[in-house]
Amino acid sequence: MTVIYQIGRLDQNIGRDYKFSIGEQVYAQPLSSFALKEHFGWNHAKVILVYPVSLPFNRNIPPEYGLDNDLKERYLQDPYPFFQRHPHAEKADGFVVVHSLGTYDGQRFDGNYDAIVLSVFMDMVRRFLEAPFERIYMDISSGHNIYVTALIEAVRYFAVFWGLQSWHCQRVLRAFLCFTEPISDPERVYQIYHDKEIRHRAFFEAPILVKDESERNGFVKKLIGEEDRELKRTTQQLLRRFLVCYSAIINNTPMVFYSFPDIVDKEDEVTNLILKLVRKVQNLLARSWTSVPDVVSHPSALKNWRDLIFCFALYRGTIRLLLRHGVIREAQDDGGVELERMQQDFLQIYDTLGVPGNGAFLRSEISNLRRKVEEEAASQHNTDSWITLGRPSDPDLEYRNFVAHVGLQRTITEFRAVNGKFYARYKNNNDLKARIEHTLLEAL
Fold first, then answer.
1. What's the pLDDT at 144?
2. Rounded distance, CA 355 to CA 240, Å?
3. Tell me: the pLDDT tens digits for 158-173?
4. What is the pTM of this model?
5. Dihedral sign, Cα of residue 41, residue 42, residue 44, residue 50
6. For the chain, how many structural domains are there in total?
7. What are phi and psi of 281, to 5 degrees?
8. Sign of the C-alpha dihedral, residues 410, 411, 414, 416?
9. Does one domain contain both 191 and 220?
10. Do 394 and 308 reside in the same domain of the chain?
11. Cα distance between residue 267 and residue 286, in whole Å
């Protein structure tokens, strides 16, 4: 599926068709995005129009769409019903209303650029999670500069979002800019240029790295507020578990995923949280249409919301990658984890995530462990028994040792060799999982 975004319009020529060409084909449509949709196939593309909230206040709108004082008041409380009867509503597959800047027909709008970017970005995220697509076009043929620029910025954010949650698949999102020459003569044929691809790349890097719990919870509380306690609590909990998961990967401790499958959330739980956060942002933005509400007008609001969404996109993508390699299981196997299998799984995972150095260190540490386990098992004349390599005087779980030994710290891990295969498991300790989570957060 292909999705096309374009700035909507409302002027005296709103019902007129223009001629647009793509290759040898000519299409008669009121907007270039509709021509592009017809070119791709009506069932294979969707057009989403972006309406500045100031649109009905322009002087050259059709009289039937004018607003008297009573209608203006109702419109500024909720502009969405107005645009549901827009002439292009039948051909468009959806729309999003964004804030405006300036004075139009005596009405002052004090929006800002960040709010426009945030609105469009959140709309893209929501639509993708509800109905995934792999191509997106930004048609910048219409609209003032601020809206066009915001559209381009939003799709760059979305492209990163897409990449962060798509480590598990071979395909990549393809994002394009498309445009026409300025339209002045309704009799001319205007070519649509639609092959300008937007290059993008996502990296395995968490945009929020806050190990202190009170500081991390305060960050979430500032964004979400006090009134939505359930969303605030869920966000705080999942952000913590994301950071534990992220730390386990960057600090090269893969054993935790095999031993504690509930150390990460279910994919659909993360997806649902992202959608709830998107709706939260949209509701905050809709509190006022003549200005940007305080909670999203702060200079860092766009960055903070973007980074939070990016974190959960990365979390979702990591969970999907772990599932693809069979790392996350319903319950721990008392037989432990075969070290060779763990090594092979994570050599591929690290390569996919762009951290191959972790794989080399993991291979070296497992090789050393195998040799020591083999020697210790031979000395005990019982290769089927679980053995401990650490000495009683060795320190208990400590993050430097834990990370230095790829999560297989000798004092908390048991090993055995069976028929030439080597296995590891954590000791049966009721609070070990909680202590490992704390250690991973400390290691960030």
1. 87
2. 22
3. 999 999 999 877 678 8
4. 0.94
5. positive
6. 3
7. -60, -45
8. positive
9. no
10. no
11. 29
